[in-house]
Amino acid sequence: MKSISPEYTIRSFEESDMPLLSDLYQAVTARDNAVFWWVGEPPNWHNVYCAFENNRMIGKGQIEVTSTIHPQQPEEYKHTIYINIKTVPEREVDTALLEALYQPLLSRAIELQKTLSTTHETMLCIGNHSSETANISFFTDKGYSYLQSLFHMERNLLQPLPGLTLPSELQFDYWQMATTAEEQQYLNIDAEIWPEAPIGSNKLAENKKQPLWTAMVVREYQTMIGGLMAWQEEDEGIIEDVWVREPWRRRGIARYLLVEGLKYLQSHSLEKASLTVLTDNHSALSLYESAGFQIMNEEVRYGIVLG
User: What is the CB-side half-sphere exposure of residue 82 using CA atoms within 13 A?
Assistant: First the structure.
């Protein structure tokens, strides 16, 4: 898709745009903690739309299906498609530019919705740092409503980590999910833990492509009872999807997994680890703070039902 206004051109991202994308990223993130998506691999570039003016990238919009609900899940759960629009700072209140980026994303969202089960509605959502008030206002003026808030937390990996042990009947292991059957096993557990927002096969595949990606699990005999994923993004480690199944909670398993994940990242000479957690998930917040994580900033999410 390509559109032209008197001031700028909007078209899909191309490989030759990479230097201009880097300039846009530097401009957007220089002032505050903006939520800026990277464009990913070439197969994803048809989901990325960029605005150009005088040989400069002045804005970028991007879209992704983030969770798909199984037809047998409760009706109140919804598929989610997230979009992300960013402009250079001096154009962040340029509603005409924001709208020009939004419209192809909306059209693409409708296309993506057709690939999802019709048993559940679809939410079109955004996630911004709480300081991005102009960007948030653009969406709330369109009827987007507040959904939830998350804290971005970081942990200094140069600080020592505690030594923990598991009860003798439990076993810790790394798990590479090397087969399709193993990936499906993980997806089934993920849907059990987070039925309202399962990760889905596409997102799992995307995570597995990240540098240093690994999964870690705890088993009781042959039953998988807890796990997490860890990888590297730029110069920091990422911890994601820390989970323990209901019958085995409150036994120190999540804390053990978290420390093992941090040790793994530490062993690869990374100096910082980060994760996100819902602001109202007090038990998880307590766990992460006890492991040395500190709150750095807050992300707020808004959404609207996609018609």
Answer: 16
